[in-house]
Amino acid sequence: MIELTIPYPPSANRLWRRSGRVMHKSSAYTEWLRVAGHMAMAQRPGGLTGSYKLSIQALRPDRRRRDIDNLIKPVSDLLQSVGIVDDDSDCEMVTARWVTNGAPLTVRVEMAGVG
Predict the structure, then answer these.
(1) Band of residue 114 on the pLDDT scale cut at 50, 70, 90
(2) How far apart are CA 101 and CA 105, in angstroms?
């Protein structure tokens, strides 16, 4: 099992931008992937090959209404971009929940069929 603490990603509305007909990652998203990637790798997570389960626990960063599912895509992209998982399409199950204490964003990745 791999457990990471990473910073909160930009809002889902700020992940992608359009240039003409082409969609690309926003500068805020690119910067978050860079910073969160360095933080994740500093925790020496290792990696998993094949099917995995993803669990996300997050503190609400403020009192605004937020959808918990907006955390899934950026976290999945991060895990793949730093090589913790080979391909985020290998994820077989995702759980995400708001918590009232702990780190701002905790991510747990484990092999499918374990735990």
Answers:
(1) low
(2) 10
Torsion angle defined by CA atoms of residues 73, 75, 79 and 85, in that order, rounded to the nearest 10 degrees: -60
Q: What is the pLDDT of residue 59?
A: 92
Closest CA to 38 of 82, 83, 103, 104: 82
- Domains of the chain with bracketed CATH: 2-111 (3.30.1330.70)
Q: What is the pLDDT of residue 12?
A: 81
Token look-up 């240039």 returns 19
CB 112 within 8 Å of CB 92: yes
Beta carbons within 10 angstroms of residue 40's beta carbon: 22
Structural contact between residues 95 and 57, judged by C-beta atoms closer than 8 angstroms = no
Residue 93 amino acid letter: M
Work out the average pLDDT over 8-23: 86
Two structure tokens written together for 29: 């998203």
Place of tokens 């929940």: 97
The single residue listed with the structure tokens 């971009």 is 81
